[in-house]
Amino acid sequence: MHRSIIIGGGILLVLYTLAIFAPFFAPYSYDYEKRDRAYHPPVAVHIIKDKKLHWPYIYNYKMEWKDYKRVWCEDKTKVYPIKLFSKGRLLSVDEPAMLYLLGSDWNGRDILSRLIYGARVSLSVGIIGVLISFSLGLLVGGISGYFGGRMDNIIMRLIELIMSFPAFYLILSLRAVFPLDLPSIYVYFLIVFIISFVEWGGIARVIRGMVLSIREKEFTLAEKAIGAGSLRIIIHHILPNTFSYCLVAACLSIPSYILGESALSLIGLGINEPWTSWGSMLSRAMDMSILSSCWWVITPGFLIFLSVLSFNLIADGLRDIFDPRAHF
């Protein structure tokens, strides 16, 4: 198997596994708050005690004043071992210590836990959106290319009208039509629908061009000769021959859905609190005063970069498999 597919697929396998089993892997729930621990730094995990190897443990943290600044310091009077498979979770510690492996946000919520739960939104948006847009694009593009004539002209003019608008501004305009206080579950499906509406036109346009060529192939003409219906020819013979393109294009399209959802959530038009997504978590990183002192708020951006890179690696590997001549 292609190396880039193995690397990208391995990273995505880990991310999707964490997302699916979030209640098990996340140390806390996505909405568990400790207001008195806002912007708590990542805790240090220790494995050495009294110069001997020790089961991993942490200390509780207390806020102290140093050089006229408030800082979090370890309270080394008591050790809190990290527990495995306790309370239905992979990792946990006894209170009052908090297992903030990646720090906390402005409400004292665990960043790592919210990243894992946020992956459910950010990663599923791309999969569901691609299924919708590619299904629509394949069907419309296949019909347009196969029948041609006036139907082809009407469909292509409609697609060109949609594609004439800048994609991101069209997404903002469509989102602004709906109330900002919609429940998060409605916002989630609304975002999927909006991005799918914007993306399907480009897919249909490419499929239409491929169908124009495929419909003149011998196997298509043979099907017509034996009296096969147009819909049967499109679904069973023409569209399957676009599979290799669709597979590569889908892997390249999923990152645009992830980035689209992240951009909407970043500017406050996406998922509402207390639900979380990587984009909504990044909104606090826009404040440079917070980012300069609490670097851990930028970690959602790293996961967005990692997931986008992984899908592009898979697409690059699939392209080389289906068309070795495309490798540069």
- Helix share, percent: 55-70%
Q: What is the helix/strand order?
A: HHEEEEEHHHHHHHHHH
How many strands, what sense, and barrel or not for the largest sheet?
A: 3 strands, antiparallel
Tally of strands: 5
Overall morphology: elongated
Average pLDDT number: 84
Oligomer: single chain
Rg, please?
25 Å
Class computed from helices, strands and strand pairing: alpha+beta
Distance N terminus to C terminus? 18 Å
Structure annotation, total helices: 12
Strand content: 5-15%
Q: Which regions have little confidence, pLDDT < 50, spanning 5+ residues? A: none
Strand order of the largest sheet: 1-2-3
Kindly describe this structure.
With 328 residues, the chain is an alpha+beta fold. The protein has twelve helices and five strands. The strands form two sheets. Strands 1-2-3 form a three-stranded antiparallel beta sheet, with no helix packed on it. A hairpin with a 2-residue loop joins strand 1 and strand 2. Helix 3 runs parallel beside helix 6, helix 3 packs across helix 8 and helix 9 runs antiparallel to helix 12. The chain starts with a helix and ends in a 6-residue tail after the last helix.
List the helices and strands and how they pair.
Layout lengths: L2 H18 L1 H4 L20 E4 L2 E15 L2 E13 L1 E4 L2 E4 L18 H37 L1 H15 L3 H10 L7 H31 L3 H8 L4 H9 L4 H24 L11 H5 L5 H6 L5 H24 L6
Summarize the structure.
The chain is 58% helix and 12% strand. It contains 12 helices and 5 strands.
Which characteristics define this entry?
single chain, 328 residues, alpha+beta, 3-stranded antiparallel β-sheet, two-stranded antiparallel sheet, 12 helices, 58% helix, elongated
